[in-house]
Amino acid sequence: MTAGGGFQEQEALSPDELREAWPALSAVERAEGLKLLPRDTAEDLFFTITPREQADLILALPQAEQRSWLRGLAPDDAADLVQEAPTGFRDRLISMLDDQTRKEVTALLAYREDHAGGLMNPRFARLRPEMTVDEAVTYLRRQTRQAVEMTYYAYVLDPSQKLLGVVSFRELMAARGDRRLSEIMKTDVKSVGEDLDQEAVARLFRQTSLVAIPVVDAENRMKGVVTVDDIVEVVSEEATEDIQKLGGSESLGEPYLKIALARMIKKRAGWLAALFLGEMLTATAMGYFEKEIDKAVVLALFVPLIISSGGNSGSQATSLVIRAMALGEVRLRDWFRVIRRELAAGLALGSILGSIGLMRIFIWQGLFSTYGRHWVLVGLTVATSLIGVVTFGTLAGSFLPFILRRLGFDPASASAPFVATLVDVTGLVIYFTTAAAILRGTLL
Amino acid sequence: MTAGGGFQEQEALSPDELREAWPALSAVERAEGLKLLPRDTAEDLFFTITPREQADLILALPQAEQRSWLRGLAPDDAADLVQEAPTGFRDRLISMLDDQTRKEVTALLAYREDHAGGLMNPRFARLRPEMTVDEAVTYLRRQTRQAVEMTYYAYVLDPSQKLLGVVSFRELMAARGDRRLSEIMKTDVKSVGEDLDQEAVARLFRQTSLVAIPVVDAENRMKGVVTVDDIVEVVSEEATEDIQKLGGSESLGEPYLKIALARMIKKRAGWLAALFLGEMLTATAMGYFEKEIDKAVVLALFVPLIISSGGNSGSQATSLVIRAMALGEVRLRDWFRVIRRELAAGLALGSILGSIGLMRIFIWQGLFSTYGRHWVLVGLTVATSLIGVVTFGTLAGSFLPFILRRLGFDPASASAPFVATLVDVTGLVIYFTTAAAILRGTLL
Q1: pTM, 2 dp
Q2: Do the chains contact at A286 and B303, CB–CB below 8 Å?
Q3: ipTM, interface predicted TM-score of the complex
């Protein structure tokens, strides 16, 4: 690479090398790299990079070439690209499209990106019910020479574009040529509304193992088709969001190594500061019990152990429930079944940790006589508190996602750190209250 | 539903009602429900339930009907079903298959479920390079009447089954009928090895937006085809596993509401107990600083606040890095870039929390004179410790996934609770060491 940026002409770069170097290259270098590849290899690469990268790349190309790259895209991909381009360039990009695509792209831009309408391709194979199989095959062969997205299905529509039925290409190829589509089509078609959330669309794909699902408006007029290859990206993105939120951060919305450091810190600082403010209640709670700690410093020793056990069990519960909700395994109305299970799980897990804690205190006392005269009572305090704190942590972790969803928030905001913070404060209260009850008259 | 279980014959159950009630029904009730549906609706339902449910259902059917349901499945689905059936029944299920499928299923069972070989369908559209387009179309129409999985592509093989090229049906339909496949096929075919991990297969699908990828052995002989609809499930499963591990639990491997309570508790207790044992080091550390706490109880008040801030920042960092690794955005060799970013992020986040902490102490002191004569020094101790603890938490959370992956473990095992536990112990040491340095001669 020369110092001025850009490749030297004699370097024959393979597509794999270019892809390897891709993240490190500027848009101008990428545009130059692309020019060194044979056109079809360059297209393969172009079609697989993200819409954002496509936009940057096109804007870095000489004006004469921009149009031809843009026109190679299907309308839904072109719409994604326009959406990702810097605001000032969107109109110019749209104006480069051919008339039909421009109309389609403009229509698609009206949909929210995360709705079925924003995912769909408005081009699909359309047939009429009175066609014969042979006519349909001939017609499809002609349609595919234009840029119709070929999926596995062709859709049978009436003159007002209402969806009547579907035939798979397999059925079309296997059927006798003189049968009418109305005889062989499946009329019980699964479809989705234009404004169905992409998470729900993904769930439907998982449940049905279809390759494509038609999108219809309120009058059952077919608007486009969502294909399963777009859903892979949706499922992956939704999981990324959930994992980032669960970890106690805003979702980054960009690849980890690409997001600007300052922006990443901003996205992380918000939640962290909010949690810190909540966690300050622990200092208040500890202040409230300062006299007890002063009298029995031994109690302070177990504070981190007890509150973190509550936090850990809460993390577990909230992660399990949030994921089960995202997968549709658990719905809002299942809350009672979940709470019942988690109550049982919390009591069992608390008892296990309580027993381990008790053993530890007995063994350390035997070996080092660490815990003073009242070590049995201290052990009981710790064990009892653990059962209480772990049960509370488990219940809080499993119930919070329900509350958030009921209030219209994303359940994944009930992040592990959020639950841990809540449980830390409550855990201190449980611990010192238990201590007061068990140790009154002896240590306290 | 009658008390004895099973539906009354007069109830005409719709497929949606049956699906709705599904989770609550026993295998016998499901089998009876299925019988009430028209055959093709019943098949639609049968093909969309999980392999485990299919297995239970088939085993609950009268013997005469088992065979017909089993034979409706593609070989890869039949293999999944056999794998999920109780051990004692597997041979009987295999023996019910027709000869060809039995051979294919037996071959598939030799692959690991989470490898490309375990995901692939061994039936696919095979063509020969010397065929013309017209011959290919005729041949495909015949093949589809047998149970070949029709995907979007047909594969061109030489006589020893080596993969020469691929044509999409779209290309086939658009091409002139007398051209040879060798002229129109694409020879630069992306394929995967039989034992490639399903996570890597999913990543390839995301990168390429292909609908199907061929699976080849070491000699480039084509063994089958993985289709994108199976990948949706893989992506979702892998995310579920990661989220459950990140939450500090073993991955459940079953839907939350379906797993037996005892088994779920077992999967959760292991990690929780291990973390508890680790967390016990906090009691040891606190014991080590008992004298300091005794002298300055005010120090104890901030223990939960400080260690949980480290835990929260560690949760953030580990979640972000683990997800970026799973998506292939961050690779092992990127460790230095990640550490550098996280060092900067940790220092920035620590300074933000430190400033908030300092303000809080100053305000409380102004309002309630809570923190005694040396409140400025206490404030400095807390703020300095926060910077140290948050930076350490961020670094530990981001570096642990690299260590685990390097050692061959799943990076997602660097769960939020795991990092929090590690940071709790270290956080205490950082806090009390800072206190000793700043408060020596005054409070300590």
Answers
A1: 0.79
A2: yes
A3: 0.79
